[in-house]
Amino acid sequence: MNLNQVTVPSVNIPAAIAFYQRLGLKLIVEALPHYARFECPDGTSTFSVHLTDRLPDGEGTYVYFECDDLDGTVASLIASGTLFEELPNDKSWLWREARLRDQDNNIIILYYAGDNRKNPPWRVN
């Protein structure tokens, strides 16, 4: 089994397209006003947004995108006007993360984990 894609809700697909393209995702399906799908710049995973009348209550969805050069990516996004809730910092789970939200309140985490992504010291054998 392999993860194909993650889909998050949006009340404004054109705004979502602009946001995720600014993050570096490549738009591959634009079915306005209901849906958009993107390719991640690395690997084979895709990501999509679908139109909804109402967003879920609570914190929304957490979506993680791994970046080989996290600090450089964040610096570039900040220079282009992207606002972050949390700048890159080292976490106790051995990942380096930065956090922001999309226009629909989904939490987007840009991170770098290296080998610790799948093989942390506490991995179950």
Automatic annotation (TrEMBL):
<dbReference type="InterPro" id="IPR037523">
    <property type="entry name" value="VOC_core"/>
</dbReference>
<keyword id="KW-0560">Oxidoreductase</keyword>
<keyword id="KW-0223">Dioxygenase</keyword>
<protein>
    <submittedName>
        <fullName>Glyoxalase/bleomycin resistance/extradiol dioxygenase family protein</fullName>
    </submittedName>
</protein>
<dbReference type="InterPro" id="IPR029068">
    <property type="entry name" value="Glyas_Bleomycin-R_OHBP_Dase"/>
</dbReference>
<dbReference type="InterPro" id="IPR004360">
    <property type="entry name" value="Glyas_Fos-R_dOase_dom"/>
</dbReference>
<dbReference type="Pfam" id="PF00903">
    <property type="entry name" value="Glyoxalase"/>
</dbReference>
<dbReference type="GO" id="GO:0051213">
    <property type="term" value="F:dioxygenase activity"/>
</dbReference>
<feature type="domain" description="VOC">
    <location>
        <begin position="2"/>
        <end position="113"/>
    </location>
</feature>
